[in-house]
Protein 1
Amino acid sequence: MSKKPRILVAECMQEISSFNPLQSEYANFHIEHGAQMLVQKGINTGLGGALAVFDEVGFEPVLTISARAGSAGLLSRPGWNRLMGEVMEAIAAEAGSGIAGVYFSMHGAMGADGELDPEGYLLAEIRKLVGPDVPIVISLDLHGILTERMLRQIDGLAIYHTYPHVDFASTGARAARVLHRLVTDKRVKPTIARVTIPALVRGDELITKTGCYGSLVREARRLELEGTAMSAGIMIGNPFTDVPELCCQVIVATDNDADLAQAEAVRLAQEFWPLRHRMQGKFSSLERAIAQARSIPGPVIFTDAADATSSGATGDSNLILRGLQQAGYTKKVLAQIVDADAAAAAHQAGVGATVQLTLGGGIDPARFTPMPVTARVQLLSDGRARLETMKIGLDAGPTAVLTWDNVTVVVFSKTLSLFDRAMYFANGLDPRDFDLIVVKSPHTEHHMYEAWADCNFNVDVPGATSANLPTLGHTICARPIYPLDADVAFAPRATVYSR
Ligand SMILES: [Zn+2]
């Protein structure tokens, strides 16, 4: 009986916003070692999708470590050193034992104090351990920043093709199939063409189902499905991750056909470039949004993309709540905010108590000032839930529902992803019962809000993840870059990576 090929499996995922003043730490990461990683089996994650394929094709996964963190500020230097040490130790323990291939599940938008390309570092270290001949295949979020250093280490990749992201598992599965091909047919010679585009993009046109970005991604997907490319994708980077190689980029990988890979990558980049103007946020001022909301009979959404925790913001913005209060808005408001002190005070006081406290402004005091409120504690919870689509666990720490006048606010102790309704449902609240719902995410899946709301206002307020990109203050990414600079020129040129 022949032995199954052994595939080293690892995961390290975080997306950071350089404009969040609070650095993230080792404690932000949820870490699973070895067989603990099997909890992702059957779940809609990259690892879940890859493990299913490894089962199907008869590969033996050698599970090393999974480290996943929600989006947050730059990872601190001690946080990175400890995380990197633990990840590399777990991988090194298995890397010598007859490994046929490596699958690494990544996001691509990590950043650490002192190491602005953590994924590149990890891949370079893994390459040293496994040697030049073992194929390394990664999966990436389309918001990741795929760097030169990463490209020099990998043999294959798969990139998300949907935004809002729903294809986590299928992306992992695509990466696993690339790896299967490389492990079982040594004649395959991956040839990856990369065209970088000096642009940062944001806004509704990035929604792949409906936006112009989606029609380009479908071209990339077609190249994969038809077999023209082993992998193809259009990465837009996370515009809040201010690192040297932040940009948009087209990636096309073929089997030993550099001309084809380059031609397709250049073509897609050429198609992308004139659309950069459309792929920007379109905003309402807060005053205008409130005034219009009053005149709309049905429910409205106030999208606070600037405080999108899933993109790395703090979650402690109270600017919309303040604006509504100042404007004397009287219809029923539902909102969320991160404020550990307020949550603790509510837990101390108990359900039914009236508390005087401040909300927000505790993490990003340069942008937000604490808002004094007198509120009733309506409900207390442990802040645990599961994401609606991915079913991954959420932990907001001690959580409280506070109410005053026409306002209901869910107060969390910890910053966590708020791109669906999970934390509303988990705290006994249905957004449909309200007239104005604040959503701290640039986009949500259609059925969650837009299917039943009368209007979705993209409110232009400050925050660490504002879609008003020139307001953020990038200092590290290569310049010039649209829309931070005027008159940016672009002549698409492909660089080919082949190991
Ligand atoms: Zn993403």
Note: The chain has a mean pLDDT of 96.
Protein 2
Amino acid sequence: MVILGQWQNHSFNLSIKSNCLTLSLEWDGKAEVYSFDCAGRLWTALVENVSYRRGLDGKLVAKWGTANEARERRWIFPPASLEFEERARQRAAALYAAIQQGQAVLNADLPPAGALGFARALAFDAARSQADVRQYSQVYQPVGILPPDQYMAVVLQMALGCSFNTCTFCTFYRDRRFRIQSPQSFRQHAQAVRDFLGEGLSLRRTIFLGDANALVIPMPRLLALLEVVHEVFDVAALGGLYAFLDGFSGEKKSAADYRRLAQAGLKRVYIGLESGCQPLLSFLKKPGKAADAIQAVQAMKTSGVAVGVIVLLGAGGQAYARQHVRETISVLNAMRLDADDLIYFSELVEAEGMEYTRDAYEAGLQPLNAEERLIQGEQIEAGLKFSTAGGVPHISRYDIREFVY
Ligand code: SF4
């Protein structure tokens, strides 16, 4: 339900949904938008053409466009993030007081759900926000990364870390030993996640099985853990199960296994293909072969499980560029992806101390600049062929620097 209103010289509207409350208002002649989940947490905001998103860990990511159509971002940590949350709360408090005191004119009465939304947002003050972040860090090991379409998932850390941890361009789980949770410890974790999210669960759209490759868990143990997920959450109502899997895993699942997993609610698996070029995969110390990824995708697709395939742009620099493009096209085409699937182009992000950076320097690799990386994505995309019957997968960019959970 949307309510339009006027208060002094501010016009505003309230969007009251079953999963969030959004205030859009004009303040000092500028548009401001604040959304809160049903637990009262600030979720997103827009102030002076900068969009903000609060992660459950309390950090905010601010993003804005530049004159040359580039996107910039900045992370905001406490105390600045708490100050921003307070600003949102103050706006909500002022508006709610004006509504209650009859100073604001609305085109419809504020329904009880709207009043409840305000009450929850106002109760989520700095002390509550800090307590929430403390609870988050007790419930979760830091969530390393998710595919962009899964940022609003309920993450359940069924297995911790990565079973490989060898890829030179990836630092997400270096400090974490791979461990599969027992059903008992996983049940406690899942219940703690449910309790932590509280009413905010209504905003979550899917369930993501963490961390890096939960689907390497052998079938009997995996099915036992999935039973726990169903005990604690309404999987169908939450939109099903999603997970990463390294396409090159030693623990290969058959089409029959994927059929069983689809029955348990598995909807899509995200595969870090990175490249179809075998020498480049070896340089990246990515385990296994591209051919294994094709086989894994076929097993999933024939079982009704969709895939999201991630390609790394810029990996191997100029030296590998042509082969990377050519052989990645060939592998993606062999996967026979369709409209249910996704392809993500993720730019290589180098960081100080990263093994890849050292290896590339020692091998004398000339890196691709930002524009060349984008062109590489366009070249791969231009070579892709899809059947008219199956349709075209959604293709988009994946910027790991914007990840927020
Ligand atoms: S398999 Fe995936 S998560 Fe593990 S090290 Fe490689 S890229 Fe990182």
Note: The pocket of iron/sulfur cluster is lined by residues 162, 164-167, 170, 172-173, 212, 246, 272 (CB under 6 Å).
Protein 3
Amino acid sequence: MKLTNEIVIQKAKSIGFDLVGFAKAEKLASEVENLEDWLKLGYQSGMSYMERNIDKRKDVSQILPDAKSIISLTLNYYTHHQYSNNKNKGKVSRYAWGKDYHLIIREMLKNLEEELCDIDPKFSCKSYVDTGPMMDKVWAVKSGIGWMGKHSNIINRDYGSWFFIANIITNAEFDYADQIPDFCGSCTACIDACPTDAIVSDYVVDSNKCISYLTIENKEDMPQELSDKFDGWLFGCDICQDVCPWNIKFSEPSFVQDFHPKNENIEIDLNEIDKMDNEEFKERFSGSPISRTKLKGLKRNAKFLRER
Ligand code: SF4
Ligand code: SF4
């Protein structure tokens, strides 16, 4: 049976995805130019992988030769928990409170792909969740999921921006969505609130100054000139999303229990990190996004916060 938008939406939602959008698999021109400009300015900092596979980022048929469409999917991870702002603890970005989303979403994608293949045996695809040479956010915009906010995250009018994005490149054809207009308007709340001025212009984030990058992906020492600007963030930073009016008005708790805080990972005692050994780190953060920094990175972040 030929797949339709309705069939895919019904199957994706029955598996647990919140939003589903469809975009034609066209070449990306202006979007790749923007990426190249961003790279030329060095805003990727240590994320050199962003410089690779530009051809694939530009043209998804370099990944799946008979690509016709992109199916964009989202999964809400918001939960209502709050920080205590205890100075002896370091805050963790809300996406990392529970289980690693890659593990959850990969499984959901596998189930969805199998169901779609059962319906249409000619269905072929390649899926990504946040990794791989795909411009996830661009496709989420093109498929009508939402618009890119000035903080560079995707915003949906019903969910705000607390969601993960997955994309499926496929040889199936669908009806394609109109893009959602940009509803940021004259708001500049995220730009004004960013403590390190990392949002250097609308929609452009300089990773060299972004606490989220510096505490997670960064392998180097912390920039001393930002030492009094981290506002207690140990792993990631949510300030620009916390102040966004679309999140303040529309965030609803996720149905995914695995995204609710695990092992009190909302904020972590800095003394505990100082004393932690590899064994304890593995035991506490196995299956959590926090494991990405390794113990060395988490200790560096904790030390940086203590010295402020
Ligand atoms: S994550 Fe934090 S540091 Fe990065 S742009 Fe947003 S507010 Fe600024
Ligand atoms: S805080 Fe304002 S400018 Fe920033 S993303 Fe949200 S709506 Fe857009």
Note: The mean pLDDT is 96.
Protein 4
Amino acid sequence: MHAPRVRGVYHLHTYRCRHARGDAVHYAQEARAAGLQRIGVADHTPLPDGRWPTVRMQLAELADYEAAVESARAAVPELEILLGMECEIEPAYFGWYRDTFLARGYNYLIGSVHFVTVGDEELSAFGACRSVEALVQWVQRIRQACESGLFAFIAHPDNIACGDPAAWTPEVAAATREVCAIAAAHGMPLELNALGLMEGRGYPWRPFWELAAEAGCHAVLSTDAHRPQHTARGLSQIADLAAELGLRVVEPLTADRRGPDGAGPRPHP
Ligand SMILES: [Zn+2]
Ligand SMILES: [Zn+2]
């Protein structure tokens, strides 16, 4: 399989999430220089109750964020620039996401599991999600995301065990099989994330993606850039990886957007 040519990157952050740098226009300029045709800005969503405040924008910054994407469109008109948001997969917020973003003209949302809650305990989904209870919760969230129709793709679904070979237990493998079957049945693309690859975070996690390929899952390639100069970083490496794994790569978004009632992922030409 030939490595797919990547036209767009849909997972980019801005300084507003408090752990990234730069604004929409800076990513747009880098994308243009890298020969991309479109980008999607999808910063970490604010939440109505202010939860997890240190890693996301505040609600009061939303208007400014939207204006920043608008002014990037004006500054770099050769590029198609989509307005998105990276959202925690937490059903309590689903109605709010719909009303605040999609109903107000956002082009798309990305769904991510950064935390799971087991009992009273909040666990990081980046490697701490190993117990049977945590895995059940993880699978359930991905299922809820797929059924909600809110999300264009699921970000870094393979953060679950973060590449620790000892973490590939039969339980993790079984949960992964379940997640891949759910995603495949819903035509929900899964993100192959170059940030993980470039920073040695343990994802993309090969055993996960072997099962994803076997299940017929679609993959979206993104850089999850938190620095403008990383807008296209690692794209060719993950494109090669996708080809090697036999994954079908899709670009799920264009200006006519997928949206909540959209036509589903667009096959990569
Ligand atoms: Zn981030
Ligand atoms: Zn991100």
Note: The chain has eight helices and ten strands.
